[in-house]
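testing teh design pipeline on a random one, pls ignore if ur not involved
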């Protein structure tokens, strides 16, 4: 066993790794299921979508439709690979639509929110 220290977002974690041997086996993953939701009351070109940077699960939605947000505000928390990632507003705007809900699995590049 080897112990390593890893710094993530300013926090130091101790990680204990076990030595393993490599094998030539292949792993097949099932395709991700993506729920399609229609966005109501938002016309094409009426807002800017905020996309998921990676596949994961929505742990918390911190905004509501109609809310004003500033660039850098936390919109939601996305858990991916056991890490919590804040999804931040890329610009100032008003939340036109929220296309996901708490506990939902999302695919990479899936539309999460529309800001207008």
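output:
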């Amino acid at each position: 066993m080897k112990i390593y220290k890893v710094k993530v977002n300013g926090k130091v974690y101790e990680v204990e790794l076990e030595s393993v041997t490599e094998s030539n086996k292949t792993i097949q993953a099932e395709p991700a299921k993506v729920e399609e939701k229609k966005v109501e009351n938002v016309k094409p070109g009426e807002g800017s979508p905020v996309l998921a940077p990676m596949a994961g699960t929505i742990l918390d939605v911190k905004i509501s439709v109609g809310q004003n947000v500033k660039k850098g505000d936390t919109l939601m928390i996305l858990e991916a690979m056991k890490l919590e990632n804040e999804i931040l507003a890329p610009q100032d705007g008003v939340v036109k639509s929220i296309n996901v809900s708490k506990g939902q699995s999302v695919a990479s590049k899936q539309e999460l929110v529309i800001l207008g």
